[in-house]
Amino acid sequence: MDLDVAQVRAFVRTAEELHFGRAAGTLGISQQALSKRIARLESLLGTELFQRGGNGVRLTEAGQRFLPPARQTVAAADTAVAAAIDKERPLHVDVWGHLYAPMRTLAQVAGRAGELALGHGRDLPSVTTALLNGDIDAAFGRVHPPLPDGLAHRLVRLEPVDAVLSADHPLAAEPALRPGQLRDSTLWAPSALNRLDFLHRFADRFDIQNTATSVNLGPAHFLAEVTADPRRFSLMPADVPLPQVPGLRSLPLVDPTPLYAWSLLWRTGNGHPGLNSLAAACAEEAGRSRWLEYDPTGDWLPEPPTNHPRNGSKQH
Fold this sequence. Notes:
two-stranded antiparallel ribbon; single chain; ten-stranded mixed sheet; alpha/beta
């Protein structure tokens, strides 16, 4: 009996997630394709590996027995692929969302992920093209659907977002703001809003009617433009070190707190050994620093997270 590694990998990921949609998302395939792979594997083995019902998905006894050697099979396949490529080559990683300083997060794990070579992507479409062309191995930034076939991603960090505005803004004296309080203000964006999925969805969700765009010449220039008009505001991750811009205020957003989702993105089938190291380092830091905490009653995401964040409060 010859096993198809793609089918075994689909089983392992679904067994880890216990959710077909999340597993499919991390593998970069449709849920229908994932289900077909598992069904073919079950047909080949002559037994069911999952029990599917109203209470979710869980492993059968056969699935529980199959999982440990299945993990070994996937690991062996990855090792074989890694052996066929140049192990000495650094892992080529690109980032996007530069105004939100993605390197802050990547820098916290880079020392545990082997040698990295950084690219210069400016947006998600250019990064996905580079991944599919094999120009880079992985990328880091905010992922939003639809993604091209052949790419997979894993959620790494959910970061609270603050409102930044002028000290002369009518709401500047508030200790915190609800997003709806900004309805009559102007959302200042560093590019056309239809190219900025997070800001675009924020404006739609909280009925921000007035928007205006600028040119991204870096955080200091952008935030100086925000402070130039007391009606303007924008959004920045709460932990981003802000430049010293006179008259700038940063206020927490609550009820709900918007979260900016950072993900690791890669091409399926990429066997570079540094990719597993980087993913493992991200997962380790997420556990240590509580990066994946998510409370659906008090937080807002444009789309639900695709991993298993723990509920709980976040520290700004």
